[in-house]
Design brief:
Blueprint (H helix, E strand, L loop, with lengths): L14 H27 L13 H13 L4 H15 L2 H14 L4 H19 L1 H6 L8 H10 L1
Helix pairs in contact: 3-4, 3-5, 4-5, 5-7
């Protein structure tokens, strides 16, 4: 049996092969980036995206503050917001991560606290500088807060 040396019958030498390889490298990157941006745009807190409070929201928050019983995650959020203004968002994010590591019960509130820090960082530092502090504390919730504050 004689093997063909004709270039047309050889495998892996055409432009289709080069295009296929390029797509194999580029497509996963595009999918990851688009998925990350899509996740960042979703309101994961369950709270309405409108800044306007309804009467029931105002009454409920007023009743909770009058009762004097504040949840630990609310106390932590307020402390970190003050720390963000006195120090910087990086320090507040580090302390958030430490608090969640020390008290695992705070983990379910970590994302909402990080988003609050992101929104506050935009108000204090502006969007570009605030984004420079983003890191993977509670996934990408800080970055999500920065993005949501800009929209």
């Amino acid at each position: 049996m004689k093997h063909s040396t004709n270039p047309q019958t050889r495998r892996g030498r055409g432009p289709a092969r080069r295009i296929g390889r390029s797509l194999a490298l580029v497509l996963p990157v595009v999918l990851v980036l688009s998925g990350t941006l899509a996740v960042a745009r979703v309101n994961w807190s369950g709270a309405p995206s409108s800044p306007v409070l309804t009467a029931t929201d105002t009454a409920a928050s007023g009743a909770a503050s009058r009762a004097g019983a504040r949840a630990p995650h609310e106390v932590l959020r307020d402390q970190l917001l003050v720390e963000l203004q006195k120090e910087n968002p990086g320090v507040a994010l580090t302390h958030l991560q430490e608090a969640v590591n020390d008290r695992p019960s705070l983990a379910e509130h970590c994302a909402s606290i990080a988003r609050s820090l992101g929104k506050a960082a935009v108000r204090v530092y502006g969007p570009t500088k605030a984004q420079s502090y983003a890191r993977p504390v509670c996934d990408t919730s800080f970055a999500s807060g920065v993005v949501n504050a800009n929209t």
